[in-house]
């Protein structure tokens, strides 16, 4: 029986998911937990095949215990979250979830994800049974992929075959089963690739792989990539070959499919900071505020589509892209676009960033989505923002410019400066200069906490002409000079 565990702090949500699964999948056994301690205990006693859990249910104290337990028991994971942010995406990636679903939960999306994982597991079980007799001769089995046994090391060569669309793997496996290589091989079908293990011999495996790829292309339009790992030593375990092929296949994120990847190109990932720098955030504010699609395209191309070996680790690139998506989200909220069809497209793009197999597909979809936003704003810009909001938006997106004035804000809002001044006093109880300085100080305080750049540089990037004036305004608003503020906040965070 297929066992599913639901873990959510909200009892109403938990009961709703339980009812949905039980009513839709009668043969499934579904149980629940409502806190982290209950979740760990339930994992150990119930040992589910699938865990559907709220991401924020796992705090820092229980994270290690949760990770260790899931690694031992090995359920597939579907995470739920209210926040479409890069930090939540990173947590989900680190935990190894199969899917990340945003709340409020769509019954169709949840069921589709759970059924897909269930079908995949059934397929793996069937193929494991079908090929058991083949593997038994050499004592190869699925356990060898996940448990390192040094005494089982032997001269091996391994081949990974990955389909651009994982749903095509069953067809690819059928084709592979009827295919004849020069040497007897053993197959492992996994969730996103097929692993082939063979004893080392004088077979030219690159030529064999090229022949297989050509034959496959004659029967299917589905793109595949093939990795070949012979190892640095004379012997190796099945697990070492599995991990090496998985790492080789990650390069397809940058290079694409329809190619052979050999172990000579085993990637050594380049270390990068995945988050936007303050300067990059300012550039993005400019891009979005000015609806400069061409500048955005150039930035994307230079930043992501000219990468070469050594590549950044793909997970870091995905986090960097969600950091950009956060800037886009802020722009959407400014123009009150975070609902309806626009919200659906945003959530779809978030999933694309997390799971798309190719970087250029992600970039193309991001550019298309931004273009859609620009067109929507352009078609109805005056109605999207009230007068006060337009002025505040102007301040938020131009605070970094030392030349910002009330006159420029009035020109942007298409009103008289005196009228703007009077309107701000009435609606906000503050002058234009006070609102501008508050925005600048809020941004500078963020930089003082989150970065190590000098106070002089912070003053400059936040729109102040000199550090002395910055110190004066900061002290007036925060009650202390910026250097003291930084020290206190750093001590607090420690």
Automatic annotation (TrEMBL):
- Ranges for domain Response regulatory come to 3-118
Q: Which PANTHER family match?
A: ARAC-FAMILY TRANSCRIPTIONAL REGULATOR, HTH-TYPE TRANSCRIPTIONAL REGULATOR EXSA
| Record-annotated HTH araC/xylS-type domain positions | 389-488
Show the stretches that span the lipid bilayer: none
Against Gene3D superfamilies, the record matches this protein to:
3.40.50.2300, Homeodomain-like (1.10.10.60)
Q: What is the lineage of its organism?
A: Bacteria, Bacillati, Bacillota, Bacilli, Bacillales
This protein's superkingdom? Bacteria
Q: Keyword annotations for this protein? A: DNA-binding, Transcription, Transcription regulation
Question: Can you provide one Gene Ontology molecular function annotated for this UniProt record?
Answer: sequence-specific DNA binding
Q: What processes does the entry annotate via GO biological process terms?
A: phosphorelay signal transduction system
Protein name (database record): AraC family two component transcriptional regulator
